[in-house]
Amino acid sequence: MKKSGGAPARGLDLAQLEEQPAAGAAAAALHASGIDNALDALSLATGAEAGKVDKHPERRFKAAYAAFEERRLREMEEDGSGAGLRQNQKKDKIRKEFERSEENPFNQVSVAYDASKEEVREVKERERRKIEERLGR
Hints:
Elements: H1 14-17, H2 35-46, H3 57-79, H4 87-100, H5 117-135
């Protein structure tokens, strides 16, 4: 038996998503395919921060590389891509992959540890504009 009255039900109100933009604002269309692009579009639409600016990527490098190396060694063994290679050769190959990987903290948005608030704000704004251009806003 349902309760009547009381507090409204929790959850997402779909009516909020269908609201029309303000009269003076131009309607902008975001075209996102894939999970990452959809999350970026959602962060733009809600006004949430698109991403966190990292001031100390060097602190996360060692742990990120260890996790990446462990995962890639397992994958190489399973799919046979490391067949015929010595352990050092496999690790050299993995290191080169990690340097270009999105999992590398140095390939993510970062600023100097002593950056001013204004510099951090500029970097965040630049990243937001980049996402808007990519999604066609």
